[in-house]
Amino acid sequence: MTISETQFDTWAQLGPTPQFVTTYNSIRTTLFDSKSPYYSRNFDVHLQGSYGNDTNVRGDSDVDIVIWTKETFDYDIDQLPDDQKAAFNRDFSSVPSAGPSFKSEVVSWLRTNYGSDVDPGRKAIHLKATSYRRAADVVACVEHRRYYRYVGNTDAGQGFHLGVCFHTADGTKITNFPKEHQKYCTTMHQAAGSYFKPTIRIFKNMRNRMIEKGIIQKSLAPSYFIEGMLWNVPNAKFGTSYQSTVVNCLNWLHSCNRTELKCANQMYYLLRDSAHNCWPPAHFEAFLAASIKFYNDGG
């Protein structure tokens, strides 16, 4: 007995969003307030995570928000040839840092508005849930540029992938590319006949049921990695029905070359040990095996 199409259709639906919208709009308004200590900086605010990617399901709680300053930038020039590295270092002999002070300003402003509900956290600034607000994680970042071309400090002379960068409480540097992730997930969704995002929601609901039943640990399969996992599945495997799509995805993932799987942002490999942007391979294998068994057992 396998899981029915009716059940998959239920799991494919977008989770409830009204309180999420209220939460995001309220926090966004606070972050853009002209009285904030960082208001004079060049900054932007946007969603990331499940709500930003339209992959949220019933039970998703935290609203993930990025606030990032563009008045300075972090950079990676490792992919540039030596002559272009030299040109970059000549033009940018020093780049001002705004990271730690920017985050402290954001924390201070959130505490002014939300008081003891604010926890600076190791990575994100956490806002506790209330009766009228969902929990939220606010990540204060600077712009990050991964350069693939640099022949001069003009728009035409440089090419880079745009991401964000922040440091954890212990000083660990974290870089990521949330807008690239959103862009490529949207492109995949369109190319897969609008089956991609509903399929993500199905796999997230399967994960949640397995957690409830004690089959897997809660930390085994974060939503970000499930999205990345399914982004690698060929477009032709999606479509016709949710049941056939799930089976096609599971079969393809079971037989694929794991070492070549990439994150949806295309900036990192999906499966690597000891890398903050990557899914530990053992966790992927455990989740995939559990998902296959869960499907075959009928949920």
Structure write-up:
- With 299 residues, the chain is of the alpha+beta class.
- The protein folds into two domains: 18-176, 2-Layer Sandwich (Beta Polymerase, domain 2); 181-296, no CATH class.
- Helix content is 41%, strand content 18%.
- It has helices at residues 5-11, 18-31, 49-53, 82-91, 99-114, 178-191, 196-212, 223-231, 242-255, 281-296; strands spanning 43-48, 63-76, 118-119, 125-127, 136-150, 158-167, 173-176.
- Strands 1, 2, 3, 4, 5, 6 and 7 form a seven-stranded mixed beta sheet that branches.
- A hairpin with a 5-residue loop joins strand 3 and strand 4 (125-127).
- Helix 7 (196-212) packs across helix 10.
- The relative contact order is 0.13.
